[in-house]
Every structure is written in structure tokens, then in C-alpha cells.
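queue> holo job accepted (iron/sulfur cluster)
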Amino acid sequence: MKQLVILSGKGGTGKTTVAAALAHLASEELPIVLADADVDAANLELVLDPVKQEEHPFIGGKLAAIDPELCTACGVCASVCRFDAIIAGDVAYQVDSLACEGCASCFYQCPDEAICMEEQQAGVWFRSETRFGPLFHAHLFAGQENSGKLVTLVKQQARLRGLDTDAKLVVVDGPPGIGCPVISASAGMDLALHVVEPTVSGAHDLERIMGTTDHFGVPSLVVINKADLNPKRADDTAAFCAARGIEVVGRIPYDNIVTEAMVQGLPVTAYTDGAVSAALRHVWVQMKARLFSDDVSRRKG
Ligand code: SF4
Ligand code: SF4
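queue> job finished
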């Protein structure tokens, strides 16, 4: 079973459009499993029309809590907390849950064992069924941390499902950017497809995100979205990729039909056979060749 992650250095490049189209095209030929690793703003479900089968809490970490019955107001916890998360109350001390980082220093230092570390639900994750295969996705609650941990969980669940069902491919719609969730999404993948726009910032973002995938030894391919809006920049991006030995597997033209398809809740390749769909079908053929060639296996060691 192979694992493919679709990435972009920032949001709004068309990453999910590409991911949904590849999910559609791949599912016509192979049993696949899908994972939406953009846990801060999951939107693959907008075009896959998933039916939820399971819902599970995601425990992001622990926060300190003080039992006022046991607290003797000695102030030790406030003195050891480096995040100013402990407030002196009238009788007992209290924890400011918004400031607490869960380091547990107070827990270990309290002489009266008045502090416990309580698990905190930071989000939910789901297993859903779609017309293209099972989808694992999640929702991280607002202001919660540990999105990288939730990305890893979603990926693991998708991989386990794939192994259980003898799927041939896991398609991961990665989070945008280059932060912790992207690192989590990239680790262990067989191939990364970078979706980039033909802009100065797009090229800059591509260079930065490739630093991440290169670090994890994940081979990269690039697709230039809306390439016809700035052919010169698209050529510059292609030259940058060529200089690094990275193959550009497609140039997708700009077309309002993509938005139309999204409004209808469909991947563009399931909505129309126009130029955009043709470009995406070409991308899938290139990806398939790379994913299932011996070359990828050798590079993964
Ligand atoms: S260290 Fe323990 S007993 Fe002292 S103020 Fe903090 S919670 Fe209360
Ligand atoms: S767990 Fe750490 S951050 Fe939270 S209140 Fe205790 S010492 Fe402060």
C-alpha cells in the first residue's frame, strides 16, 4: 500500500481541489482510503459528501486542576509556574486554564497533593464513508494545540483501515503551510504532490515546504495550479523544479468550472471533462506511474 500526501505552502492554492480530483480518479482504478489532515479547517468533506460512521474524542493533553478542599494556599504552585497560570483565590489557589501549558510542575511540587492533571478534549475525529472510499477526518476545537498529534492520529487511522481492507493507496489532503501539522502529515509518506500557484510567494512557499519533505526523505512532484494566469512565473517555477530534479507533472489552467463543481459538491473531474479535468487526469497518470514504480520503493529504502 502506498501513501500520497498533497501539500501546499499556504492555503487557497487549490490543494483540496487537486486532492478531491485525485481521490475520484484513483478510486476508479484502485481501492483507496482518504485522510483529511487539515484538522484546523477540514474541507475535503465539502466535495466528498461523507456519511459519518464513527465519532471519537481527541484528547490533546492535560491541564492542572486544584482541589480547593485540599489546597492550603501555601503558594508553592504559583511560584513554580512559569506561565503565570495560577491565581491566588480567597481561600484556595486556582488554575487559569487558558494560560496553563500542562507542564505539571505544580502537580509535582504541591506539598498537599491538591493538584491533579486532567485530560482535555481538544477535538473530535471521524470515520466516514464516501463514494470514493473511507474518509478519516477531524475537527480541532478553536484555540486548541496539538494539531500535529491529531494529524498523526488521522493518518494512522487511515493507514490501519487501508491495511485491514487491502487498499492500495492512502490519499492524504495535507494541511497548508510548513508548520507542525505539515511535518506530521509528511512523515512516512511515499510521495508528496506540491500544489503551487504561479506567484512570487508561491515559489517561495514551495522552496520552504520542500525543505520539510526533503528532510523526511519524501520524494516530491509539483503541479502548478492556475498556470495560465502568469505563464512567466509558471515557467520560473518549472525551472526552479528542474534545477532541483523535481518533476512538474501538470499545469492546470484557471477555470470557473472548479468553483461550479465545488458548489455542486463534486470533484471537478466528476463534474466536467474540460481542460482542468484533462490536466488533472494527466497528473494522476504521472502520479500513479511514480507511486507504483520500483523507483519510489528504492528511494524509500
Ligand atoms: S501548592 Fe498545592 S496547597 Fe499550595 S497553593 Fe498550590 S495547590 Fe494549594
Ligand atoms: S501545569 Fe504547568 S503551566 Fe499549568 S498551572 Fe501547573 S505549572 Fe502552570
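queue> The chain is about 40% helix and 30% strand.
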